[in-house]
Amino acid sequence: MKWEKRKGSEPEKNTQPLSDPVQSGRIARKKLVCIGTSTGGPRALQTVLSSLPGNLEAPVLVVQHMPSGFTKSLASRLNAISNIRVKEAEDGEMLKPGAVYIAPGDFHMGVEARGAHLFIRLEQSAPVNGHRPAVDKTFESVSMLKNYETLAVIMTGMGSDGTKGLIALKNRGHVRAIVEAEESCIVYGMPRSAIAAKVVDEVLPLEKIAEAIMKFISD
């Protein structure tokens, strides 16, 4: 695969946590983006992440089915072509806006709320449907958060990983679900499974997903 370097200077890293203002007597919910993908995912992630701005006002969690030792180099390559910071997730690190966290191979990735911040939790419980990391595990972890609005994105991939996690997110509310359209998928299994479960709000071609992420965060 050819990775093309984006033009422009090195982006400034936004290290400030998201604010939690009160509007009209209610807490304004923070935003979180979660992306799950498998077969064909590296190329799809290249398209989406390289189109996001470096000052994106939300963190992004990514689960790409990959074995141990490959996700760190994937994160490095994606970081080199993107304005937003892309890194392999580390256990215990605090999520920050303007950053993408890729689940390490052979680890499930979850999140834990402590005070006003979210922290990465990595663990090695049994694979889910043969996958570790599994999209379902990340989505299910995010479904337990309070005062967050989540955009869950399922892109190209074989199987049904992510569908049970989407159901959990929908049962808790405050989630918008997008899947990649069949015409741009390398393998349509994961998006098809989510659509069949009737938990999808929008179906978009790959080139429209970054725009949808930015709209979700700005709304």
TrEMBL record:
It catalyses: [protein]-L-glutamate 5-O-methyl ester + H2O = L-glutamyl-[protein] + methanol + H(+). GO terms for cellular component: cytoplasm. Its EC number is 3.1.1.61. Transmembrane segments: none annotated. GO terms for molecular function: phosphorelay response regulator activity; protein-glutamate methylesterase activity. The keyword NADP does not apply. Residues 1-23 are annotated as: Disordered. GO terms for biological process: chemotaxis. Keywords: Chemotaxis, Hydrolase. The keyword Metal-binding does not apply. Gene3D superfamilies: Methylesterase CheB, C-terminal domain. Residues 17-219 form the CheB-type methylesterase domain. The active site is at 38, 65, 161. Residues 1-13 have a biased composition (Basic and acidic residues). This is protein-glutamate methylesterase. It comes from Heyndrickxia coagulans.
